[in-house]
């Protein structure tokens, strides 16, 4: 298990997209947020717009890793991040479809999937986030209560935003 976690603070995200641009540049993909390993999703409610960073949640029993027919996805033992072996990946998108968070993405220009690799233990998105929406902190500092409160807040928003307007 990794000693650090990338924590997403939804209520602090302003939607500036600095994380997406930094990610794509850092990974040699140009200043192209569409090719970033983190995504900012904007959800519009009746009264406001909420920006939500979407990233690999490093599932304990990762469905992306389990479904890969060629074994191209593995877990980095140091960081806990999923690694995609570009030589093995056949671009079938099975991991893209099964990821419950939408964090596995297919780069059609090269025919490979990419998943956040946590920048080998020093995620640039967290270092450059000006509002603290992304933080890379020690696992023992992340309280289960705080995680639960954030998840409940997100679920409440999603429930409100899915109510059809009359």
Question: Explain this structure to me?
Answer:
By secondary structure, this protein is of the alpha+beta class. 27% of the residues are buried. It contains 5 helices and 8 strands; from the N terminus they run E-H-E-E-H-E-E-H-E-E-H-E-H. A two-stranded antiparallel sheet has the order 1-8. It has a two-stranded antiparallel sheet with strand order 2-3. A two-stranded antiparallel ribbon has the order 4-5. Helices cover 25% and strands 20% of the residues. The chain has 2 domains: 1-55 and 120-158, Alpha-Beta Plaits, CATH 3.30.70; 58-115, Alpha-Beta Plaits. It has helices at 18-26, 63-67, 94-98, 124-128, 144-161, and strands at 4-8, 39-44, 49-54, 73-75, 82-84, 105-107, 112-114, 134-138.
